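Reading a protein record of the kind used here takes only a little practice. The record below shows the convention in full.

——
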Amino acid sequence: MKFSALALFISVVSAAPAALQKRTPPNIPTAAAATTMLASLSIRTVDATGYDRDLFPHWITQSGTCNTREVVLKRDGTDVVQGSNCAATSGTWFSPYDNATWTDAADLDIDHMVPLSDAWKSGAGTWTTAKRQSFANDLTNPQLIAVTDNVNQSKGDKSPDVWKPSIASFHCTYARMWVKVKSVWELSVTAAEKSALTTMLGTC
């Protein structure tokens, strides 16, 4: 009996790390830091004049045959195996927007935390194409995350005052990521967006 209990304990402990491997993008600030960052962001009105997604070259080659999408899939997944062309052939991915788990990379989109259209309206319209490319492929900040494809499509280019992940417990992290990206790239927010982010940070 003692051996069986010990064996069961070891089995559960051994299984725990794999079950808890829910990857997150880098450089997510604390709630306190995000609150300070949010307070410093300038307020703007909406103006999408001249926006075109092609003005933000994305999924560029990062190294060898690996582009940005493939790098994020590798980073955000567990036990990811890539083929000779760097495409993910197997692995497991957890989407924090809807608490869904996937084993086929085709079921995932790489979400731009701050959508490209929103960035354009927030100041990126005055950037060079090179800077917009850097923004669209930003692996240093929490701007890119692998999530369920249709959930990402429902988000589209919406800001937090219009769209939030269905999982309320992720709102704190989502707001911290959004604010970090806006702060690093010196992008503005609308009054409604700032109010929504303040409420979301309050859940932390």
In short: The first strand starts at residue 61 and ends at 63. Helices lie at 2-19, 31-40, 68-76, 116-122, 129-136, 149-155, 171-184, 191-201.
